[in-house]
Specification:
42% helix, 4 domains, four-stranded antiparallel beta sheet, alpha+beta, Arylsulfatase, C-terminal domain, 10 strands
């Protein structure tokens, strides 16, 4: 089929069966059969097989890349290990067709460009393998640098404060001989699901905006007998009390504490009981 298609397109006819037979003779058949088929001596057949095996074998390549802040088109430098021989100072270049390796060089005033290559890649296939390895090595090196930077980056200040508050609470409990306490720090909407057990009493001391409606809904679902709500903004308390009372809670006691003299602000403490 392949032979017919090639002929129809006007290209050279490729006899795949003949090519497969040639591969068998060179790599698998007895040396005597290879010699007879090619009309050569046994010694020549041995030499032919060795040459073809060397051509087919690929030398192992390892490219280690050190990214730098981009200078023109140079993105970094690389060390190339070709079958145990290491050549340093290859340049990793961002070309029009992708990343490729530029040969290492040194200043040479007698050269037209002022530089002379200290290593050359003469085989195109080898150059393609080097370029592919360089692109992969550069990506991996950058990913490692990013991961290292992320590991060293300090946690957000809110998370630091929450963790500090949690540790301070543990220390305070220990100083007061309270060993039956557990502390959580984080977003109420997430942390409340980690409590597991139903508490006997819930004390709420939210910010001025009050309790988030979704968080308040989860709190009400616990069905505790008493809730103590400490509010620094009466209007937020009034809004949340409406939801609490609609869901079966009654205001038992309420009082105000003037913690902010000479201002309009007041701290309000409200006790609610389940009806």
């Amino acid at each position: 089929m392949a032979k017919m298609q090639a002929a129809a397109q006007g290209g050279p006819v490729v006899d795949e069966a003949a090519m497969e037979e040639m591969r068998r003779l060179i790599f698998e058949a007895p040396i005597a059969e290879l010699a007879e088929s090619q009309g050569i001596s046994i010694d020549e057949a041995v030499q032919l097989r060795v040459e073809k095996n060397l051509e087919a074998a690929e030398v192992p390549i390892e490219v280690t890349v050190r990214p730098i802040e981009k200078q023109g088109k140079t993105m970094g430098f690389a060390s190339v290990n070709i079958g145990g021989m290491v050549v340093d100072d290859f340049r990793v270049i961002d070309g029009k067709n992708g990343v490729f390796l530029g040969a290492p060089s040194k200043p040479d005033p007698t050269s037209r460009t002022g530089y002379r290559s200290t290593a050359r890649v003469m085989d195109r296939h080898l150059q393609e393998r080097l370029d592919a390895a360089a692109a992969q090595g550069y990506t991996q090196a950058v990913e490692k640098l990013i991961a290292r930077a992320e590991a060293l980056r300090p946690k957000p200040i809110r998370e630091q404060m929450a963790n500090a508050a949690k540790e301070a609470a543990k220390e305070n409990a220990a100083l007061n001989g309270l060993h039956h306490c557990a502390f959580w720090a984080g977003d109420v909407l997430k942390v409340i699901d980690e409590l597991g057990e139903t508490p006997d009493l819930i004390m709420l001391d939210p910010p001025r905006d009050g309790v988030h409606p979704k968080a308040l809904d989860k709190i009400i679902r616990f069905g505790v007998k008493r809730i103590v709500y400490i509010a620094c903004k009466p209007t937020s308390l009034a809004r949340d009390l409406e939801m609490l009372q609609d869901r079966g809670y009654r205001v038992e006691r309420i009082g105000c504490v003037d913690l902010f003299p000479a201002t309009v602000h007041v701290e309000t403490i409200c006790e609610l009981v389940k009806e």
